[in-house]
Amino acid sequence: MNMAIPRLIRAGWMLWAAIMAGDSRAAAAEQTVQMSPFEVSANSVEFQGWERFSSPNFIIYTDAKPREAEQVLRQMEMLHVMAQRYFRREAIRRSPMIFVLPTARSDWRKIESKSGVQWRVAISDPAHTLADLIVAHYDWQENLMLVFHELGRAELRWLNLPEPLWFQRGVMAFFGAAAFDREKVSLGHISVTAQNVVHQGWLPWDALFRVTFQSPEYVKSDLIGRLNGHSMIFVQHLLTHPEPEWAERLLEWLAITEAGTMITEAEFIRIFGKGWKEWEKMLDGYLRTGRYRISSLSFPKDALGIVTTRVAPPVREMRELFILVQILNQVHAPESKQALAGILARGLRAESLRELLVEACLARGHADLALVELRRIIAAGTTSADVYALAAALEFKAHVPDISLRSRLESADAHAWSAKALELEPRHREANRVAAWVGALAPVVDSSNVESIKHAYRRMAGEASTGEVVAALAVAMQRSGDDMTARLLAQKLVESPYSAREVRAIGSALLAELKAP
C-alpha cells in the first residue's frame, strides 16, 4: 500500500480544519498538500468551448453548439410540463436538474485518453439526494433517449411520487420514448425496452413489485432487461389508458408497493380487476396490435414562458465540476477519498457547485461534513426548500438515529429548517415528515405540537404517503394525554395496506404501551 496517500489525506483534513477555524498561518503551512489524480487530470486541460445553459428547471454544461444545447433545454422543459399533465399533479419547487453533455471533441475525452479516469457506459446518475446530476457519454447526440430516460426518474421527485424500482424503470422508459417534431412533443410510444418481454417473457409479478437494487432480478443482465420491459409496458398501458381512473388505480397500487407489506395478487385484483396471468394475456395482445394512445402537445415559441441564460463558466468551475463528478461516479475509489479531502481543504471556489459537494460528502458517508456545507448554503441566503429539508433531516438523524416511543429531540435547527423548507414549498415530502417528528418528539408536547402535525398531514394528503405523519400524530396524541385518539390512529397504522413496516412497528409499540397499566 502507498503510505503517502494516507499522509496526504491527513494533511488535507488538517488544512480544511485550519480554514474552518480561521487560522491562516496553519492553512498556509499546509498548502503543500498534493493534488489527487482527479485534480491533476482536471488541471491538465482548459475545458475550451464549454458553456452553461440554464432554464428554470434545468442546467446543461456542454461544449455542443449553442443551438443544439438550447433545443435540448427547451425539450426538457416541454417534457416537464407533460409529466405534470400525465400525473395530474403540479410539480414542487426544486433545484434545477444538472446535465453534463460532452461531445466527441470534448476536453473530457482528452482527460479519459491520457489518464486512468474511468467512465460508465452511456450515461450515469451519480447524484440525486439533493441535486439531480446526469452525466452523459459522448454518443448522446446520436440519440437523446437516454437523456430523457433519466429526466423521467427526476420527475418522480418533482411530483412527490414514490420510487419503487418497477415504477421508476417504467416511467423512465416511458419518457425515454418521447418524440419531438419541432414545437410538438408526443408521449405514449412503446419503447424498445418492451421488446425484452417479447423475447424473454414476463417476470413473476410478485417479484416485479418487490424488486430492489439488491434483488437477484437486478444482478443478471437478462433479468434486468425483463424487469425493465415488464415495468415499461405495464406503466405505459396505464398511463395511456383513455379512462383517467386507470392512472388513479396505478397510484393506489404504487402506494401499496411503496409500503411493501401487502403485495399480493388479491390486492392487485381488488385494484385492477384481473389477476396477473390475465394481465399477461391482455398485455401480450397490446404488444401485438400496437394500438397505443399517443398524447401530443404543441408548444408555440413563447408558450412555455421560460427564460434561458447562456454563460461561459470559469475554467475553475469546470475543473471542480469534473472532480465532483468523478468523486460521485467512483465513490469507492481511493482517489475519490483523496479528492474530496482536497476540495474540503482548499475550499470550493464555484459556489454554484456546493450542492454537488454536499452530494459528494453524503456519497462517501460523511453526513456531518454534508451538514457543514449545507450550513454554508443556508448562510448564503438560499431559497431552496431541498437544502433546508435535507439539513433538517440530517440534523434530526444526528440526534435521533432510530425513532422510538422513548426518542426525544432538542434541536432548534431541525425545527427552524423544516419550517423554512415548508415556507418555501408547503408540499415538500421530506420537510413535512421531519416537521411532524420534530413536533411529536419535542421535550414537551402540547396542543400546538399536535396542531402542527395535523397541518403536515393536510399538506401531504393526496401528495404522498402520510404513514409517518400519522405515526408522529399518534405519538404526539399519546404524549399529550389523548390516549383514545392515539389508540385509534395506532390501530389504523397496523391495519392499513399503505403502512410501511417501520410505521406498523410504531403503531404496534404504541398499542402495547397503551395497554400497559
Summarize the structure.
Helix content is 58%, strand content 7%. By secondary structure, it is α+β, with helices and mostly antiparallel strands.
Report on this model:
- The chain is α+β, with helices and mostly antiparallel strands.
- Helix content is 58%, strand content 7%.
- The strands form two sheets. A six-stranded mixed sheet has the order 4-5-3-2-1-9, sandwiched between helices.
Widest sheet, order of strands: 4-5-3-2-1-9
Any low-confidence stretches, pLDDT <50, length ≥5? 1-31
**CA-atom Rg in angstroms:** 25 Å
- The proportion of strand residues reads 5-15%
Secondary-structure blueprint:
Layout (H helix, E strand, L loop, with lengths): L3 H18 L2 H6 L7 H6 L8 E4 L3 E5 L3 H22 L9 E5 L5 H8 L8 E5 L5 E4 L8 H14 L6 H12 L2 E3 L2 E4 L7 H6 L4 H6 L10 H19 L5 H15 L5 H8 L3 H14 L5 E4 L10 E3 L3 H15 L4 H13 L7 H10 L3 H13 L5 H15 L12 H13 L4 H12 L6 H14 L6 H14 L2 H13 L5 H15 L2
List keywords for this structure.
3-stranded antiparallel β-sheet, 24 helices, disordered N terminus, 6-stranded mixed β-sheet, 517 residues, alpha+beta
